[in-house]
Write a sequence for this structure.
């Protein structure tokens, strides 16, 4: 209570009852100002934006408009009553401003939330807090198969924590939520069991009967976008008088539940407007993310259709890399303590993993699917040449025999024929051995090795042509292919396959990625870079290789070794593939900390099995 006081011009009274002098015209005098009409002119309107003025005297109209006007000689008791009224009004105005700031802050917070499920929980929780509701539910308006309905999206209940999910509601007035969504009207019911006879909807007691709850007061508000579209309904149940026992009986409801008042309706309606915009934005974000997800999956299918033998590689590399990122967060080596990946960064990492090989669509299919050092058509030429060489050498033996008989004038004997057969057999054996050496050299090696020792002798082998000239058994380009010491590709083909990284990058930078996915091209670009500078295409050294690319490199190499779908090799056992990763660490090619985490956390087994991280 304010103590009645004698008031002189230029006096301020705080809401708490304290009255003290203040200089006229000072900035921000406080919640209540008591002054005279003459002194009021010393104040500017913006100085009193949040101040209630009690003015003594009515003679001056040159200053701000006062809250109350009193006679200049008003007794202290009257001034005290005026101060009390001003104090209550100031408290109410402060509460209104606080609620307004709260709603604005909530609108900003809701607009920043992009996860729809989290957003809906937050909207309902905030609405219940504003309306002091014991329970509530939220319905979203959705379309399916040409029809529209309300989907039960979220429910919260302080009295009955566990409750059955509700079935979708038709978009009509048979239910309260349906009526609100269809009409766009707010409905405030003091008691759902005492509805007027002309009400189009009826209370459905199924939830109360199933859960033991007792519904009494109820407020339903539509969520309407700026374009006038209803996106859902917020439904608040049982405004509590105070905190008390669970509302599980008519007796408790009668004692503890009161109707929602006009302020509740306005506050929840204001929140619903913010919520509608936030839901609309979150749905747009979800649609964009679904669009990106569909685009990424379509891109992966395009890669696999070009190279079916590596089907599943992109998905596994993406899973391994995300798994390694999560394992690195949980068990970081000293050099990686504090490393964290947000949900957006993990999605960015997954997309980069799925798209890292997209550039293979620009590589010739014959190179992509080349299983042996000699392409199938080239090997067929070599085999045919061997058959032709055998026949040419046989003819050469027979011509030599015939010339000897003609020149010697001798008859053909059994011994001469046997000698010819033995010569032909030796030729066949020699060519069979050479062909076996070719077929052996044609098998690619997983790890670098030495060129086959037989290539030197194979390079000297010839057979007679039709004019007697000596023709090579193997052409120079075939010998170069067979001399490859790792994999199935020669130097030119290897450069072509390596170009897929550049093709991937050039493709990915043309996509208008949202800011949170902006590093996808950079990460994919680095997945073949090695820390010792021997990677490709840019030959980066360790400081220039991003962490995400380092992780993807480990995962890509492991899958290339352990997967059974490579055209040029059999799958290596996981243990052998991990040993090779460790050997690559010793050469300085891979990050030892990342390989250690990859092995210790068994990322290779958990991610490939689809286990959650």
């Amino acid at each position: 209570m304010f103590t009645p006081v004698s008031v002189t011009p230029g006096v301020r009274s705080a809401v708490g009852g304290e009255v003290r002098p203040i200089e006229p015209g000072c900035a921000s005098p406080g919640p209540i100002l008591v002054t005279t009409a003459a002194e009021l002119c010393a104040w500017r309107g913006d100085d009193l934006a949040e101040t209630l003025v009690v003015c003594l005297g009515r003679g001056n109209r040159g200053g701000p408009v006062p809250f109350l006007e009193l006679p200049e000689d008003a007794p202290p008791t009257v001034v005290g009553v005026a101060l009390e009224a001003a104090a209550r009004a100031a408290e109410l105005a402060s509460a209104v401003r606080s609620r307004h700031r709260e709603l604005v802050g909530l609108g900003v917070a809701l607009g920043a939330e992009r996860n729809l499920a989290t957003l809906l929980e937050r909207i309902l929780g905030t609405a219940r807090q504003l309306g002091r509701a014991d329970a509530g539910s939220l319905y979203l308006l959705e379309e399916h198969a040409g029809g529209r309905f309300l989907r039960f999206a979220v429910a919260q209940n302080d009295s009955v924590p566990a409750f059955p999910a509700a079935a979708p509601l038709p978009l009509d007035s048979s239910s309260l939520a349906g009526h609100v969504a269809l009409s766009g009207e707010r409905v405030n019911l003091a008691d759902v069991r005492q509805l007027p006879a002309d009400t189009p909807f009826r209370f459905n007691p199924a939830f109360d009967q199933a859960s033991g709850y007792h519904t009494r007061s109820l407020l339903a508000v539509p969520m309407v976008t700026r374009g006038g579209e209803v996106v859902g309904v917020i439904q608040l149940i049982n405004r509590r008088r105070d905190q008390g026992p669970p509302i599980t009986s008519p007796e408790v409801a009668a004692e503890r539940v009161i109707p929602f008042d006009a302020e509740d309706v306005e506050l929840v309606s204001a929140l619903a407007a913010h919520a509608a915009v936030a839901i609309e934005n979150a749905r747009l974000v979800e649609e964009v993310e679904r669009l990106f997800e569909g685009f990424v999956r379509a891109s992966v299918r395009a890669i696999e259709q070009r190279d079916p033998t590596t089907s599943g590689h992109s998905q596994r590399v993406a899973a391994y890399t995300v798994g390694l990122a999560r394992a690195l967060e949980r068990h970081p080596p000293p050099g990686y303590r504090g490393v964290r990946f947000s949900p957006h960064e993990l999605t960015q990492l997954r997309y980069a993993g799925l798209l890292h090989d997209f550039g293979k669509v620009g590589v010739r299919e014959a190179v992509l699917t080349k299983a042996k050092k000699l392409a199938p058509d080239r090997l067929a030429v070599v085999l045919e040449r061997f058959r032709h060489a055998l026949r040419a050498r046989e003819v050469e033996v027979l011509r030599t025999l015939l010339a000897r008989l003609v020149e010697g004038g001798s008859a053909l004997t059994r011994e001469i024929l046997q000698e010819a057969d033995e010569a032909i057999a030796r030729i066949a054996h020699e060519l069979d051995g050479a062909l076996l050496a070719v077929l052996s050299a044609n098998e690619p090696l997983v790890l670098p090795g030495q060129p086959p020792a037989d290539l030197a002798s194979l390079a000297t082998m010839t057979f007679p042509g039709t004019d007697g000239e000596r023709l090579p058994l193997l052409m120079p380009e075939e010998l170069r292919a067979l001399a490859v010491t790792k994999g199935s590709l020669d130097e030119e083909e290897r450069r072509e396959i390596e170009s897929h990284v550049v093709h991937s990058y050039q493709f990915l930078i043309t996509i208008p990625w949202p800011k949170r996915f902006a590093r996808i091209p950079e990460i994919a670009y680095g997945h073949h870079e090695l820390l010792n500078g021997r990677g490709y295409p840019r030959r980066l050294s360790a400081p220039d290789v991003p962490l995400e690319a380092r992780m993807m490199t480990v995962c890509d190499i492991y899958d290339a070794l352990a997967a059974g779908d490579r055209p040029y090799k059999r799958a290596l056992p996981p243990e052998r593939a991990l040993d090779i990763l460790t050997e690559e660490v010793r050469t300085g090619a891979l990050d030892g900390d990342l390989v250690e985490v990859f092995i210790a956390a068994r990322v290779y087994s958990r991610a490939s099995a689809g286990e959650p991280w």
